[in-house]
Write a structure and sequence with these properties.
The complex is a heterodimer of chains A (236) and B (927). Chain A has 236 residues and is an all-alpha fold. Chain A has 8 helices and no strands. Chain A has one domain. Chain A is globular. The relative contact order of chain A is 0.16. Among the domains of chain B are: 7-31 and 415-509, no CATH class; 64-323, Alkaline Phosphatase, subunit A; 324-407; 618-698 and 709-736, no CATH class. In chain B, helix 26 packs across helix 30 (740-761). The longest helix of chain B is centred in the C-terminal third of the chain and has 32 residues, at 891-922. The chains are: A mainly alpha (236), B mainly alpha (927). The interface between A and B is medium-sized, with 19 and 28 residues.
């Protein structure tokens, strides 16, 4: 008997990756539609942050949808965690955690070279985007306390199988976004004189492209595992 | 237990060999840096009026008026019968001019007007600003009160601010989107000048073609339109009624590469046309001759009847002299050959010149010239005279061409022999020390750190063969036999080290059977290697070199942030497991609070980027800086030493106050000048006291032999060195830069603590891992603080003020020492602090006991060679890059100052390392 092919999990993973890539494609199409890059540094004039926010929400809804199937097999800790998701304490904790992470990202941007006494809106937009790509999905999925536990524990007991799948995919998204934003600074010293070299445009685009690459890598991983199972099944 | 082995001698040897290779490379790469500067007094002025006893008369101007029509970026294949029909069909002569690198406008204008080439010194010293010319044929025309009109590029007016009688300039010459406006103004000026008749020379410089190329490329549809416009300009000049005695020259200052730019050395960029138009010409369709752009200046000078510029090394263009009589042509050839021969005498010496072939040609030519003078003046045009004339002309031209080529080569040519030797030496030393540090087993097997007699003899023999072959093939040319013999030493060392490196690489790549693969004896953390590799690879871009400080700020802060967050995560996870998952918020807050010092360091590093903006509160900043610095020094000093340090810092503040740089008592200026010297004298006395107290505490005393612990002697000496260096730097630094000294110490200390904690949190603990982290962090912090001081990769940002503090007369050695101490204070202090920290510290504070090998042992067995390797390897890589980029547009303005900085950094580290190694040798038993 070969290993059982988890069709449900694979569907979840592929849907998840597709949603991520679709979000980034919509952001790129929107930027192309605007025909200039200056709006990326503006909080109220740009739709990139709302698009990314909606994309993350959709991924969490997807995890919830696939999680309904296993409602009957939850352990006691998992059921308790699920029931306390919408309590005011959890909501406040989640919001506080995201706010603190945004401040932390703004601090990191200033440490790495963003202007200290200016460009606050640009720094805030970049920090908010980084928070949405890295911390917000986990907070939306597990709440504030759950997010902290997941970051600093090996594998908490209250995490369900579907949530574990989503968390693994969130990891690729976060890592790709961070590396992409960091690498986006490479164009700043060049003397090409393009208008998209101004801060924070390369970092925002770098974060989006980085998360796209992370998702592509995750998708390759999933397809490779699927192909291997299929080849094993065919050989027997 | 690893056997302790000192690497100091080996590291000194590698550094010495590296510096020797760097010097050879610089000699080969910058030939102008050792050529003797020419002085005008050594070249006789004025035109010659005698030839072997016979009197000569300089000829009058050949034409009433001259028009130089300069079309920027006019490529050789642009004018043809289709694109410029009038210019092409009515040209009397169609010549080509070869343009030298760099193919940009300003050096080309210098070549056109003076007949000389630009070398590194000429361009590097004019980086960022255009220095006005001192001599050209325009200056000569002004001396004769001749009228010169100009219209076009603003660069001309910057080069010749007062040589034009009338000038109309484009003020925005670099506005490349202007295709038409500037050129229309030039054409309007041309129409105005054509109605006048008083000018001798009219210069028109059209920029539209160049701008079209930059923006749209050489295949733009606007290029034919622009060429058509230029053709109409030529037609306007030729059809004017005053054309009967005008010489019109149509040329370009440089070409245009495929793609529209310029600056490199492709044929499209280095070949421009020279079309000549004058009256009564034969229009013979002769083959297109090729000359140098520098030949235009002496030829124009002769035609204009002015002296040839002193700097000129160009020849004459025979096709431009057809309108002169035979006598005047011979005079022109004689004058130019005479001028070049004088320059050759100054350059190469009288003996070499007299023994050369071209001197014989010159003598033959002058003899023939003398014979011809009487028949030419009497109007005898016989066959014999024609033969004599042709012979004299050919000899004169050969003399001029030969000397011009020799002078050009000495100005511009890269000495590839020296470059090859220097590059081989620097590369082999860098690879050698890196392999020795990384593969300790291999070092012992192959005895990389020792001297092998057989291999040495083999290297010497190979070096002799190589040296002889190179000299025989003229790859390497030295001015004397002694230099040839001296060159054997670097070649031998290079061959020896290359053999070692080849053996080591073979061992690494092909492990022997039944033996374990060689293990790297030092852990290589991936983030550190990645940041270091990124920094090294960015050396290939001129923009990254110009803004190198941004690279160091970015990567250095990234490393600190990465290490801090990984440590934070490890701490939270570990504590969370211990407390069984409860109170996670409290645990995270507590761990974050424990990391507050690292966050403060990061904020300090960010603040240091704007240290020059603290001028308004500089008095407060200086007081705070000195108190903080004294507190740091006080921690590791005895009481008398602390008092002396405090007094020295107080004297520094008084010195600044007397200079008016900080708030101080209101002292009259004459009293301040009087008090300056005693203040400095007291400072030096305090510094000497600090040194004396430190050395006395370190040296063993007869009466207290049993009391002073001998293990602390070396540490005491190095600490004293660091203290004295910091006090001296406080005197030399700018007022707002004094804050950098204590901040550097705080940053280094907190970073080392972070590395200790991070090292203990790694899965496989290793003392070497902690050392590697500290070494690379030290290098990054040192470079960051180097740029915080206001330094850059440009020679213009070197601060020369410290060299003259307290000096009553000019002493080059003291100026050099002080400027070096000030410029490289961050590198010096960081390295000294690293060594002192390694000797003093242990890992007991983070819970590691019973270390084997002892922590401080690494001070000379790991830190010194690895630090040297990490400094030498990027410099060697950069030298290789420099050879690849030697024809780059910015080779002299961006890349060359950087290589001087890199080699000097290695030299400074070498000197500091020598002093430190001396102490290690003296007190080896302690370490």
């Amino acid at each position: 008997m070969v290993s059982r092919f988890d069709q449900q999990k694979t569907k979840h993973q592929l849907f998840h990756v597709s949603l991520s890539l679709a979000t980034i494609l919509i952001c790129m199409a929107y930027m192309q539609y605007r025909r200039n890059w200056a709006h990326l540094g503006s909080f109220w004039d740009s739709l990139v942050v709302p698009i990314v926010f909606l994309g993350e929400l959709l991924k969490v809804v997807l995890a919830r949808f696939y999680g309904k199937v296993e409602d009957g097999v939850l352990t006691a800790k998992q059921r308790q965690k699920k029931n306390s998701y919408f309590t005011p304490r959890e909501l406040l904790g989640g919001f506080t955690l995201q706010f603190l992470c945004t401040l932390l990202y703004a601090f990191i941007c200033i440490i790495l070279g963003a202007p200290v006494l200016g460009n606050y809106e640009q720094t805030f937009v970049l920090a908010l985007l980084m928070t949405l790509l890295t911390v917000s999905p986990t907070v939306f999925l597990l709440g504030g306390g759950g997010a902290l536990q997941v970051c600093f524990c090996e594998k908490p007991d209250f995490v369900t199988k579907c949530e574990d799948t989503a968390l693994n995919l969130f990891k690729y998204n976060a890592l790709g976004g961070i590396l992409g934003a960091w690498a986006g600074s490479v164009v700043a010293p060049l003397d090409w004189g393009r208008d998209w070299q101004a801060y924070p445009i390369p970092n925002v685009i770098g974060a989006l492209l980085g998360s796209a690459l992370g998702n592509i890598y995750a998708c390759t991983h999933v397809l490779y595992a699927t192909a291997r199972v299929y080849m094993t099944k065919k050989r027997t | 237990m690893e056997q302790h082995k000192s690497w100091l001698v080996y590291t000194i040897g590698m550094l010495t060999a590296f510096l020797c290779g760097a010097v050879l490379f610089l000699i080969g790469f910058f030939p102008a840096s050792y050529s003797v500067a020419e002085k005008e007094s050594t070249v006789p002025e004025g035109r010659p009026t005698a030839l072997l006893g016979m009197e000569l008369t300089p000829p009058p101007p050949a034409y009433d008026s001259f028009v130089l029509l300069l079309v920027d970026a006019l490529r050789d294949d642009f004018p043809d019968a289709t694109s410029m029909p009038v210019a092409y069909s009515r040209a009397c002569e169609k010549l080509k001019l070869h343009v030298d690198i760099p193919t940009v406008t300003m050096p080309r204008l210098k070549s056109i007007t003076t007949g000389t080439l630009s070398n590194f010194i000429d361009i590097a010293l004019n980086v960022g600003h255009t220095e006005q010319m001192q001599d050209s044929f325009l200056h000569r025309l002004k001396q004769q009160n001749r009228v010169v009109s100009f219209a076009g590029d603003h660069t001309w007016v910057k080069l010749f601010p007062s040589e034009f009688t009338r000038q109309v300039e484009n003020h925005d010459s670099f506005y490349v989107n202007d295709f038409y406006e500037g050129d229309r103004n030039v054409t309007k000026t041309l129409e105005t000048e054509l109605e006048r008749s008083d000018w001798s020379l009219l210069i028109l410089h059209y920029l539209g073609l160049d701008h079209i190329g930059h923006v749209e490329g050489n295949a733009s549809p606007r290029v034919p339109l622009k060429l058509k416009e230029m053709d109409e300009v030529v037609k306007k000049i030729l059809d004017h009624k005053s054309f009967p005695n005008v010489l019109l020259m149509l040329t370009g200052d440089h070409g245009m590469a495929d793609g529209g730019g310029h600056g490199g050395n492709t044929p499209a960029e280095t070949l421009v046309p020279l079309y000549l138009y004058y009256n009564n010409c034969s229009k013979t369709p002769s083959a297109s001759k090729r000359y140098n752009q520098i030949d235009l200046a002496p030829t124009l000078s002769v035609l204009l009847s002015v002296e040839i510029p002193t700097l000129s090394i160009g020849c004459l263009i025979p096709e431009m002299l057809q309108s002169l009589s035979l006598e005047h042509q011979l005079y022109a050839y004689f004058y130019n050959a005479h001028h070049l021969l004088n320059k050759a005498r100054v350059k190469f010496g009288h003996e070499i010149v007299h023994r050369s072939d071209y001197y014989t040609w010159y003598q033959n030519a002058t003899l023939l010239h003398k014979k011809l003078l009487r028949p030419l003046r009497e109007g005898d045009g016989g066959g014999a005279s024609q033969v004599y004339y042709q012979n004299a002309k050919l000899n004169y031209m050969r003399v001029a061409r030969e000397i011009s080529d020799l002078l050009s080569e000495s100005l511009v040519k890269f000495d590839y022999g020296f470059i090859a030797v220097g590059l081989a030496l620097t590369t082999s030393t860098s690879l050698h020390i890196v392999i020795s540090v990384l593969y300790l087993d291999l070092t012992e097997q192959l005895q990389l750190d020792g001297l092998k007699v057989g291999q040495l003899w083999l290297s010497v023999i190979a070096a002799v063969v190589l040296n002889y072959t190179s000299h025989a093939l003229d790859i390497i040319m030295t001015s004397s036999t002694l230099y040839s013999i001296l060159l054997l030493v670097p070649i031998s060392i290079a061959v020896y080290l290359t053999i070692d490196v080849a053996q080591a690489l073979l061992k690494i790549a092909l492990p022997p059977l039944y033996t374990r693969r060689l293990k790297i004896s030092i852990p290589l953390p991936l983030p550190l290697l990645a940041c270091y590799a990124i920094r090294t690879l960015t050396l290939g871009s001129s923009s990254f070199i110009e803004f190198e400080y941004n690279t160091w700020y970015y990567l250095g802060n990234t490393l600190i942030l990465l290490t801090a967050f990984r440590t934070l995560r490890w701490r939270i996870t570990k504590t969370n497991v211990e407390l069984n998952g409860r109170h996670l918020y409290t645990i995270a807050s507590t761990c974050l609070w424990q990391m507050r010092k690292v966050l403060v360091v990061l904020m300090l590093l960010t603040l240091m980027r704007y240290i020059h903006r603290l001028q308004a509160i500089r008095s407060t900043v200086v007081i705070f800086s000195m108190l903080l610095l004294w507190a740091r020094l006080h921690r590791h000093s005895q009481l008398p030493q602390s008092l002396a340090s405090g007094a020295a810092l107080f004297m520094v503040y008084c010195f600044r106050g007397l200079n008016g740089q900080v708030l101080f008592f209101d002292v009259p200026s004459h009293m301040a000048a009087k008090l300056m010297v005693p203040t400095l004298v007291i400072f030096w006395c305090c510094l000497a006291l600090v040194l004396m107290l430190g050395y006395r505490a370190a040296l063993p005393q007869a009466h207290s032999f049993g009391k002073v612990p001998p293990t602390g002697a070396l540490l005491q000496l190095l600490q004293t060195n660091l203290t004295s260096s910091l006090l001296l730097a406080a005197l030399l630094q700018r007022v707002h830069n004094i804050l950098l000294l204590p901040v550097l110490l705080v940053a280094l200390q907190q970073t080392y603590k972070l590395c200790d904690v991070y090292g203990t949190s790694a899965r496989k603990f290793s003392v070497r891992l902690v050392h590697v982290y500290k070494i690379i962090m030290t290098i990054f912090l040192a470079r960051m603080f180097f740029f915080y001081q206001g330094n850059s990769n440009s020679l213009s940002t070197i601060d020369l003020t410290p060299g003259y503090i307290g000096q009553t007369n000019y002493n080059p050695s003291i100026v050099a020492i002080f400027v070096t101490l000030n410029t490289y204070s961050a590198d010096i202090h960081a390295f000294l602090y690293l060594v002192v920290h390694t000797l003093r510290s242990d890992l007991r504070s983070v819970g590691i006991m019973q270390l084997h090998p002892p922590y401080s042992i690494a001070a000379d067995s790991l830190i010194a060679p690895l630090y040297a390797a990490l400094i030498m390897l990027p410099a060697a890589f950069y030298l290789c890059l420099l050879v690849g980029f030697r024809y780059h547009l910015f080779i002299y303005s961006v890349f060359s100052p950087k290589v001087l900085y890199d080699c000097y950094t290695v030299l400074v580290f070498y000197l500091v390392f020598l002093v430190t190694s001396l102490y290690f040798k003296l007190f080896k038993h302690d370490a």
